């Protein structure tokens, strides 16, 4: 009988606790919305939905790049075996660097959005809507930033290791669990905050 990988199990258990954390943020959002519905007349009108939609698409696409990197890691292929334009021969490093770039663009987009909202007068201190918006999206942004650090560590480890083996592949796989989780949480936040206004 094959024993499950304890690193994978540990990450899944940890992500379950993260799920509870985000469930609390969703509960906070809906609770404040139910007790102060008038704030939802003016607050969501200030959001730039087209910009946030593009930013969301960028994050979702990054999950695909991440998964291609995982497929390469499972083949124990840390780097490309062909030219830079032969995407089918890319290794984990190339796909994860692309994922990192898209994740970075998403974070920069979120910072830009906060700056625009602050210019319009919506900050964490403005009212309850500003508070729940910044807290929910901000904590998610912190998680994305954490994911970017994890990608740097996995990429660095793959460059440093003499032989790309099972441990290095496992690191790539568990980071992908985290990244996909962050992606799914953002889709939920985007739907609740930007679509169901």
Automatic annotation (TrEMBL):
Catalytic reactions on record: 4 Fe(II)-[cytochrome c] + O2 + 8 H(+)(in) = 4 Fe(III)-[cytochrome c] + 2 H2O + 4 H(+)(out)
Keyword Cell membrane: yes
Lineage top rank: taxon: Bacteria
Keywords associated with the record: Cell membrane, Membrane, Oxidoreductase, Translocase, Transmembrane, Transmembrane helix
Chief place where the protein resides: membrane
Root EC class: translocase
Single GO term (MF): oxidoreductase activity
Topology of the protein relative to the lipid bilayer: Multi-pass membrane protein
UniProt EC number: 7.1.1.9
Entry's transmembrane regions: 12-32, 52-73, 94-112, 132-156, 177-196
An annotated GO BP: aerobic electron transport chain
Keyword Transmembrane carried by entry: yes
Assigned protein family: Belongs to the cytochrome c oxidase subunit 3 family.
Protein known as: cytochrome-c oxidase
Native source species: Kineococcus aurantiacus
